[in-house]
Amino acid sequence: MSGKLSEKDFIASIESRPDIRLFFVFGQDESAAASIASALVAKLGSDSEAIEIDSAKLRGDPALLADEAASQSLFGGARHIRLHFAREEGVDAIANLLLAEQAGNPVIATAGDLKKTSKLRNLIEGSPRALSYICYPPSEAEAIDQAVAAAGAVGLRIDRTLAAQIVRYTGQDRRLVAMELEKLSLYYDSAHDRIVTVEPQALSALAAETAEEDINALVNQVLNGDTKALGRTIIEARAIGIEAIRIIRALQRRVAMLAGMRAKVEEGANAGAVVRANRAIFWKEQEAFSRQVQRWTAQRLAGLNGHLLEVEAKLMATGADLTETLLEEELVRIARAAARSR
Questions:
Q1: Which of UniProt's keywords are assigned here (predicted)?
Q2: What is the predicted pLDDT for the residue at 246?
């Protein structure tokens, strides 16, 4: 079932709506989807046992999800199921869950952006036993509001100028914003009943601005086909220890944003106007986005998105000593493809 619930009401529904079997969070802003899913889990309490299921398993076993949702814990306590869809799959498993006679354990599922024609999305939104929430990329002002509210929850009083600084260098990724605020909270020993005002000096000392700027530089150089500058930036990123998975996910977020804008361009809109109209793009990034929207067609972006999902899976399965090599090979390959399209 698709509704117009606020984020707060959607999260509260896991306590107030026992008739709902599936809580589904998806959209272009995958960091928001992950954050909301974590908030849903938190509502269930620390005693609720988590059952993690990979969506790939559902392809070969469409009965698995319904079986787990109806099963009881060995110790008689509460359980919930966490499920992430890496791609459009598991439709039969979701149908079995929603049609089953009983399902006592709530399923909390997340996914990336799904078109309105998606079978998975239509199945979930059409069921009275499921509740969905779509996460759109926030405007910069909305992201700043979220950061100020999140800071207050951990006992930090932060002005909008400093909140904007955090939002910009984390690329409006809610998970990274939360990590930065957690560091500040630990630094100040703050709590919801022990409010502390954040000073610019503390933010400068603790923030990950350099790393995030390097990630943005990498993303732009890869998608612009700037192979000469890319080599140096890769070396710098490796030197300061930026995780490979963070770079791939930053690329995934960028590709998702570009895909939505490119669709408008292919319908006849002006690329620069489309970029300027997107409130989630910081003004300093508009030129890079404009070049990328013009360089990458919708078809090529769809192919790149699928490839990045495969690369992410490889990185997760590869030993730590090989992830850097694998990542760097893929970044250079994508950059060369972008350069050929100039």
A1: DNA replication, DNA-directed DNA polymerase, Nucleotidyltransferase, Transferase
A2: 81
Contact 2, 22 (CB under 8 A): no
pTM above 0.70, yes or no: no
**Residue 330 shares a structural domain with residue 245:** yes
Residues 199 and 221 in one domain: no
Statement to judge: residues 277 and 326 lie in one domain: yes
Same domain membership, residue 79 and residue 20: yes
Q: Name the phi and psi angles at 48, rounded to 5.
A: -75, 125
Query: pLDDT of 142-184, one tens digit each?
Result: 999 999 999 999 999 999 999 998 888 777 888 888 888 988 8
**Residue 2 lies inside a defined structural domain of this protein:** no
Three-class HEC string of the chain:
CECCCCHHHHHHHHHHCCCCCEEEEECCCHHHHHHHHHHHHHHHCCCCEEEEEEHHHHHHCCCHHHHHHHCCCCCCCCEEEEEEECCCCCHHHHHHHHHCCCCCCCEEEEECCCCCCCHHHHHHHCCCCEEEEECCCCCHHHHHHHHHHHHHHCCEECCHHHHHHHHHHCCCCHHHHHHHHHHHHHHHCCECCECEECCHHHHHHHCCHHHHHHHHHHHHHHHHCCHHHHHHHHHHHHHCCCCHHHHHHHHHHHHHHHHHHHHHHHCCCCHHHHHHHCCCCCHHHHHHHHHHHHHCCHHHHHHHHHHHHHHHHHHHHCCHHHHHHHHHHHHHHHHHHHHHCC
Domain of residue 21: give its range. Answer: 7-134
Residues 203 and 214 in one domain: no
User: Within this chain, do residues 75 and 126 fall inside the same structural domain, yes or no?
Assistant: yes
End residue of a domain, out of 111, 134, 157: 134
Boundary residue ending a domain (178, 207, 236):
207
